[in-house]
Specification:
The chain has 258 residues and is an alpha/beta fold. The chain has one domain (6-253): Rossmann fold (3-Layer(aba) Sandwich), CATH 3.40.50.720. It is built from 9 helices and 7 strands. It has a 7-stranded parallel β-sheet with strand order 3-2-1-4-5-6-7, with helices on both faces. β1, α1 (18-29) and β2 (32-37) form a beta-alpha-beta unit. α1 (18-29) crosses α9 (223-233) and α4 (107-127) packs parallel to α6 (156-176). The longest helix is centred in the middle third of the chain and has 21 residues, at 107-127.
Length: 258
């Protein structure tokens, strides 16, 4: 599905990461993959990279640092000369922006959540746009989402940031379609990753999902989400942009558990 595609995959921390499974399956498809990490998580990314079936490089990238974005763009230009796809799997909210403190969250924390989780989707795509435009047959940018059409317990300003991410993806799809770049999101059900571990009350959300999703939901299986990302990164999705693909066992379609 992805043979010969040149892909940048962000957001790998451990083997349990959705992004790790995307990289794993992309390599099996015959893609070339580069990962990113930064700060204290960089060593975790490097360790996870060594568990992949082929050797991959890890570039340092803090998406909130313009200089990091420039360096990654320069590296990929020298390495490949173009770029076929990006997985944006980056989100963060300070502790006081989560956990039921919505009314008390200071603006500074809300702004950090928005910039890292939503604005960075635009920042990363714009920084690599020249490379994406060189992709033969068009390029694809995919982000990881969590349904932002409703308010969730404890999700608070991360939920607001995901709503912003959905809007950002639509505007990117509008502006980049004429330039041969597709932009889509995958809205995943809750999975037991390091990121999920930082959300207070995740266990309750997980249990609710398992009761209500018509197809059931395995919070330890990142494979179905990774396969949806693979599809959107591939030429098979050549006419799809501005879309939010739900991979959640059907939870989003059901108002209450049967």
């Amino acid at each position: 599905m992805l043979e010969g595609r040149r892909l940048l995959v962000t957001g790998v921390l451990t083997r349990d990461s959705i992004a790790w499974e995307v990289a794993n399956r992309a390599l099996a498809d015959g893609a070339e993959v580069v990962l990113t990490g930064f700060g204290r998580g960089l060593r975790l990314t490097q360790r996870a990279a060594r568990q992949l079936p082929a050797e991959v490089d890890v570039l340092e990238l803090d998406v909130n640092e313009p200089e990091h974005l420039r360096r990654v763009a320069d590296d990929l230009a020298a390495r490949w000369g173009g770029l076929d796809g990006i997985l944006h799997a980056i989100a963060f909210a300070p502790p006081d922006a989560l956990g039921g403190q919505f009314l008390e969250t200071p603006p500074e924390s809300a702004e950090v959540a928005f910039r890292t989780s939503a604005f960075s989707f635009k920042a990363l795509t714009a920084a690599l746009l020249d490379l994406l435009e060189r992709a033969e047959g068009g390029a694809s940018v995919v982000g990881l989402d969590f349904d932002a059409t409703v308010a969730w317990p404890v999700y608070d300003w991360m939920g607001v940031s995901k709503a912003a991410l959905e809007a950002v993806s639509r505007y990117l799809a509008r502006d980049l379609g004429p330039r041969g770049v597709r932009v889509n999101l995958v809205s995943a059900g809750p999975l037991e990753t390091i990121a999920a571990g930082g959300i207070p009350g995740f266990d309750g959300l997980r249990d609710h999902w398992q009761r209500q999703a018509p197809l059931g939901w395995d919070t330890r299986d990142t494979g179905p989400v990774a396969d949806a990302v693979r599809f959107l990164l591939s030429p098979m999705a050549a006419a799809t942009t501005g879309e939010i693909l739900h991979v959640d066992g059907g939870f989003h379609a059901v108002g209450a558990a049967a």
